[in-house]
């Protein structure tokens, strides 16, 4: 018999030894290396708080040992794990009691197409990999190759396995996944391209209702085609509460499954077009004056846009049903196909509206009466029965969004932008929103997510939302995770994963401490990435992982192996002494850009507008302001030096922002070997102020700034034409 490690349950020599093992079992890292190269150690308080949030009783050594044993027993007492995500050469762990009299495992793989494959597996033909003591018994772990389990080749997709061993039944979700994500053939063959990034809410036009909508993407597509873009990158379109200043961040949605109705073009709906009363109301002086005000505002007036659209959408819904304009059978078939996710989302929206109307002080679901706190409660079921039509209205909004988003993707591609829409999947979710009300089993209470101290945030960042529950995600076959990916990229050719390190680990902050006292907790990263690759291959979209901040080198290696593109920003790509990396030093498998929504625009970087904004918002004191200003002048000097060395800027005074500086910075990135270049619309319009100022709410108009010019105007603007020329020179068009 081969040798293998033996793990026996016995009293630990100390409480700290037991605690260390519990941390290891739960994926909690007791230390990490920060961005400054210093090793940080989690405090005992932090370790215990995170373990407690995960259900580990750390009261004393005896209860801690019992918790460890219970956790091990939950794993080994199943013959098959709850879920296995594997490639063609992967394997599954089996656990059986030691000394049992059975040696045969009978399995059936129920493929997603309805067919079934059966196998008879003899344990003595498998490799033993471990012995584990749990529940006062010894258990043996075997390695079962997936080729043996499947009695041949593994198929890509979502399958189910049933097994019988010694009279015991076991069931497992089996997810067959590829080893790499999908890439367009042109990129695979060495072609480089570029795209245009816009904030959809901020698009100006003569026809929208004060906020960009899906029809505005026609003009954006024409602009992108004039630029030579292969994709249009958008902000997340997920549902938010549309209330300033707290509920307008597209990166803090209340649902990861459904979208914000303010992006609907109401005038394009058949039930609007065919309703005489709505047409008269729309042409009324009152409505036209309100539309003119909303369009003229330099900031998106979320409450005003949402109120006006809701008023018209509600009547359009009722009129459309009464007059047969809305195909009610098609709507209800779509609702049924969406399943429980849509039911919970629409119920949440209707409940939120109903309870807030009855009591204006009820803003978030934890304030709701206890009987409405859980989506499966009898009171919620009764509410669904009594308010079925209003719940159906919220389903109708998502149905129409789905239709208009599909049309937008088709129109963008038809305009000459081949990849089409590039969507964004946010990391965060509103802890008081539908995501937590309707799907709380997938989140851990008692902690919130953030980031450790770094040079951008010396005290760390507290993002204020709960971390994922990896055990419940896996036990469900990653159902909710899959749904969030599909929802985000349903109408698109590319997906950006915000803070892609989340697939590997997140920085957990216990509720009782601040952001400087957290610890990293790991996730089932290979499962998550393989599922992402599976969805990418099946739905033909490529993936960009936003890997900024504290990133371990092996994480980028793993992302690269699965063909997930890195996300590299001009400001952050530095070498020794702050030197800007030269174009040839950028990786090929990457998307490069000058900046992002949380950082200074190019013009703002040059003029220090972001530093001024931080002081005006109270984020920087006078000492920090002057220090930042001096550092910025040094950075500008280093960047000018890099631009001159690459012969993109001549000698001269470039201390002030100019079109020449912009063109040089874009050409600098365009010369890199990176597959993709994203050009932010602010690069072309010369906008000085960034979309979001981290660390602020009401002190700064986050997520509200509109474009200076409309996309129709920008399609023929000199900045677009000059950028098109430099893209042609660098082989990106």
Question: How does this structure look, described?
Answer:
The chain is an alpha/beta fold and 733 residues long. The chain folds into three domains: 6-74, no CATH class; 77-176, Immunoglobulin-like (Sandwich), CATH 2.60.40; 185-426 and 473-501 and 525-729, Glycosidases (TIM Barrel). The chain contains 26 helices and 23 strands. The strands form five sheets. Strands 20-17-14-13-12-23-22-21 form an eight-stranded parallel β-sheet. Strands 4-11-10-6-7 form a five-stranded mixed β-sheet. Strand 8 and strand 9 (137-145) form a beta hairpin. The longest helix has 27 residues, at 388-414. The model is unreliable at 1-7 (pLDDT under 50).
Structure characteristics:
733 residues; alpha/beta; Immunoglobulin-like; TIM Barrel; 3 domains; eight-stranded parallel beta sheet; five-stranded mixed beta sheet; 26 helices; 39% helix; 16% strand; globular; disordered N terminus
In short:
The protein is 39% helix and 16% strand. It has 733 residues and is an alpha/beta fold. Helix 1 (15-26) runs parallel beside helix 3 and helix 6 packs parallel to helix 14.
Question: What kind of sheet is the major sheet?
Answer: 8 strands, parallel
Radius of gyration: 27 Å
Average of the residue pLDDT scores: 95
CATH architectural group of the largest domain: Alpha-Beta Barrel
**Can you identify the CATH superfamily of the largest domain?**
Glycosidases
State the CATH class of the largest domain.
Alpha Beta
Strand order, main sheet: write it out.
20-17-14-13-12-23-22-21
Helix content: 25-40%
Count the beta strands: 23
């Amino acid at each position: 018999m081969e040798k293998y490690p033996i793990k026996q349950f016995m009293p630990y020599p100390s409480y700290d030894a037991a605690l260390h093992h519990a941390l290891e079992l739960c994926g909690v890292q007791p230390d990490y290396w920060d961005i400054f190269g210093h090793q940080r150690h989690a405090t005992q308080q932090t370790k215990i708080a995170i373990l407690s949030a995960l259900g580990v009783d750390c009261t004393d050594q005896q209860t801690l040992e019992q918790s460890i044993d219970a956790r091990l027993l939950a794993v080994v007492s199943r013959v098959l794990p709850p879920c296995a995500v594997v490639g063609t050469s992967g394997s599954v762990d089996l656990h059986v009691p030691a000394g049992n009299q059975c040696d045969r495992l009978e399995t059936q793989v129920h493929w997603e197409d309805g067919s079934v494959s059966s196998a008879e597996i003899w344990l003595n033909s498998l490799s033993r990999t471990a012995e584990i003591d749990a529940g006062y018994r010894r258990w043996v772990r075997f390695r079962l190759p997936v080729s043996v389990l499947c009695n041949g080749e593994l198929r890509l997709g979502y399958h189910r396995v049933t097994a019988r061993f010694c009279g015991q039944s076991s069931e497992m979700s089996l997810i067959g996944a590829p080893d790499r994500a999908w890439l367009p053939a042109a990129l695979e063959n060495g072609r480089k391209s570029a795209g245009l990034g816009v904030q959809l809410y901020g698009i100006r036009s003569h026809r929208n209702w004060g906020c960009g909508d899906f029809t505005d993407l026609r003009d954006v597509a024409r602009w992108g085609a004039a630029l030579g873009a292969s994709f249009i990158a958008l902000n997340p379109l997920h549902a938010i509460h549309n209330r300033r200043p707290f509920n307008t961040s597209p990166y803090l949605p209340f649902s990861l499954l459904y979208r914000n109705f303010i992006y609907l073009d109401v005038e394009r709906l058949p039930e609007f077009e065919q309703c005489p009363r709505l047409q008269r109301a729309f042409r009324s002086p009152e409505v036209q004056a309100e539309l003119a005000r909303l369009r003229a505002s330099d900031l998106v007036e979320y409450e005003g846009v949402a109120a006006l659209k809701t008023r018209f959408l509600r009547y359009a819904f009722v009129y459309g049903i009464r007059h047969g304009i809305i195909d009610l059978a098609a709507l209800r078939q779509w609702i049924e196909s969406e399943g429980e996710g849509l039911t919970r989302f629409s119920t949440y929206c209707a409940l939120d509206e109903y309870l807030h109307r009855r009591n204006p002080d009820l803003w978030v679901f934890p304030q709701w009466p206890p009987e409405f706190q859980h989506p499966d409660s009898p009171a919620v079921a009764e509410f669904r029965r009594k308010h079925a039509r209003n719940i159906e209205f919220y389903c109708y909004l998502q149905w129409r969004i789905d239709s208009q988003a599909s049309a937008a993707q088709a129109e963008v591609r038809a305009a000459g932008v081949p990849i089409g829409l590039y969507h964004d999947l946010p990391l965060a979710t509103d802890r008081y929103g539908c995501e937590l009300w309707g799907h709380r089993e997938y989140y851990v209470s008692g902690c919130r997510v953030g980031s450790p101290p770094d040079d951008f945030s010396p005290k760390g960042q507290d993002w204020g939302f709960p971390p994922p529950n990896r055990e419940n995600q896996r036990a469900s076959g990653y159902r909710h995770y899959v749904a969030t990916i599909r929802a985000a990229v349903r109408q698109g050719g590319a997906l950006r994963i915000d803070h892609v390190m989340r697939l590997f680990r997140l920085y957990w902050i216990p509720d009782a401490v601040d952001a400087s006292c957290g610890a990293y907790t790991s996730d089932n990263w290979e499962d998550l990435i393989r599922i992402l690759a599976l969805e990418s291959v099946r739905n033909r979209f490529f993936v960009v992982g936003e890997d900024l901040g504290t990133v371990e080198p092996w994480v980028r290696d793993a992302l690269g192996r699965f063909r997930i593109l890195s996300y590299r920003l001009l400001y952050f790509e530095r070498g020794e002494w702050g030197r800007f990396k030269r174009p040839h030093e950028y990786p090929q498998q990457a998307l490069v850009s000058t900046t992002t929504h949380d950082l200074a625009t190019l013009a703002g970087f040059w003029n220090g507008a972001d530093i001024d904004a931080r002081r005006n918002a109270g984020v920087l004191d006078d000492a920090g302001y002057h220090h930042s200003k001096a550092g910025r002048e040094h950075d500008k000097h280093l960047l000018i030096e890099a631009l001159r060395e690459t012969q993109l800027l001549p000698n001269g005074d470039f201390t002030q922002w100019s079109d020449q500086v912009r063109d040089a910075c874009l050409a600098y990135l365009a010369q890199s070997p990176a597959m993709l270049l994203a050009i932010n619309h602010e690069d072309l319009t010369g906008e000085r102020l960034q979309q979001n100022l981290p660390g602020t709410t009401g002190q700064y108009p986050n997520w509200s700034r509109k474009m200076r010019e409309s996309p129709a105007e920008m399609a023929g603007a000199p900045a677009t034409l000059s950028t098109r020329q430099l893209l042609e020179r660098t082989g990106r068009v």
